[in-house]
């Protein structure tokens, strides 16, 4: 009887010991988290095939600005912790000999569990009498939020809201996103005598229509000679979107 009890004790002890060893076994390291950021809705507003063009009219001077899409790409960038997609394009203004192009960011997209980072599209504008680097459209991972801003430095961009529709020069456009850039020099200068009077650094408000692109730009500039505001708009007059 004693031997039987001893045998049962040994078996029970062995089982408990094995369970204890299992409990102390270190956990298998978790796979690193990879976050994926797609262009998403940005593509609906900004992706247009080469050859697409837009003609804008200034409501103050009736000057025209003809822009055409030269090239466009949506490359993916892969890091150990994040995969993200950017939109790279170049438009050219035949009226003002000006290039509008995006460029690769000079820093890596970052991610951490305690903070959210999103996609930002930065537009570089260059040409005669024009220079500027502005974030004119962005889609953060938390969605459109007027309390957040993109870009940085002296030229932050704020999301101002969504419009179901907007009328521009007699035409109606749906699903319009509005962004405002503060303190930029990257605006199309007017070919009139007032050009040299206008303050270079100004703010601009962009109206982006889904499937169309920019349909209106408000330029909040100032006449330094007359000491009065000279706000004017570039309104979309005609366009063609290549399919």
Describe the protein.
The protein is mainly beta and 243 residues long. Helices cover 12% and strands 49% of the residues. The chain is built from two helices and 15 strands. The strands form two sheets. A twelve-stranded antiparallel sheet has the order 9-8-7-6-3-2-15-14-13-12-11-10. The protein is globular and about 60 Å long.
Q: How would the blueprint of this fold be written?
A:
Elements: H1 2-24, E1 35-37, H2 41-46, E2 53-58, E3 64-73, E4 76-78, E5 82-85, E6 88-93, E7 98-102, E8 119-127, E9 130-139, E10 149-152, E11 155-168, E12 171-184, E13 202-209, E14 213-223, E15 228-240
Parallel strand pairs: 1-5
Antiparallel strand pairs: 2-3, 2-15, 3-6, 4-5, 6-7, 7-8, 8-9, 10-11, 11-12, 12-13, 13-14, 14-15
Can you give keywords for this protein?
243 residues, twelve-stranded antiparallel sheet, single chain, 2 helices, mainly beta, three-stranded mixed sheet, globular
Count of helices? 2
What's the count of strands?
15
Spatial arrangement of strands, main beta sheet: 9-8-7-6-3-2-15-14-13-12-11-10
Mind telling me the C-alpha Rg?
28 Å
Largest sheet descriptor: 12 strands, antiparallel
Structural class: mainly beta
Secondary-structure element order, as H and E?
HEHEEEEEEEEEEEEEE
Helix content class: 10-25%
Measured by DSSP, the beta-strand proportion falls in over 45%
Mean pLDDT: 75
How far apart lie the N and C ends? 91 Å
Q: Give the low-pLDDT segments.
A: 111-119
Mass-distribution shape: globular
């Amino acid at each position: 009887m004693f031997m039987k009890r001893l045998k049962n004790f040994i078996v029970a002890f062995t089982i408990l010991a094995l369970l204890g060893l299992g409990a102390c076994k270190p956990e298998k390291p978790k796979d690193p988290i990879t976050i994926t950021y797609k262009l998403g809705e940005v593509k609906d507003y900004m992706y247009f095939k080469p050859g697409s063009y837009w003609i804008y009219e200034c409501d103050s001077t009736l000057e025209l600005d003809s822009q055409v899409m030269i090239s466009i790409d949506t490359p993916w960038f892969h890091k150990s912790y994040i995969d993200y997609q950017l939109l790279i394009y170049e438009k050219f203004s035949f009226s003002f000999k000006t290039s509008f192009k995006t460029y690769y960011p000079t820093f890596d997209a970052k991610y951490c569990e305690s903070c959210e980072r999103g996609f930002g599209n930065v537009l570089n504008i260059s040409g005669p009498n024009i220079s500027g680097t502005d974030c004119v459209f962005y889609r953060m991972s938390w969605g459109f939020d007027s309390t957040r801003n993109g870009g940085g430095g002296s030229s932050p961009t704020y999301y101002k809201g969504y419009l179901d529709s907007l009328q521009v020069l007699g035409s109606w456009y749906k699903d319009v996103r509005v962004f405002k850039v503060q303190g930029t020099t990257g605006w199309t200068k007017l070919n009139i005598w007032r050009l040299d009077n206008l303050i270079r650094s100004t703010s601009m408000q962009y109206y982006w229509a889904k499937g169309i692109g920019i349909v209106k730009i408000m330029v909040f500039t100032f006449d330094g000679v007359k000491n009065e505001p000279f706000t004017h708009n570039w309104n979309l007059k005609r366009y063609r979107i290549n399919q």
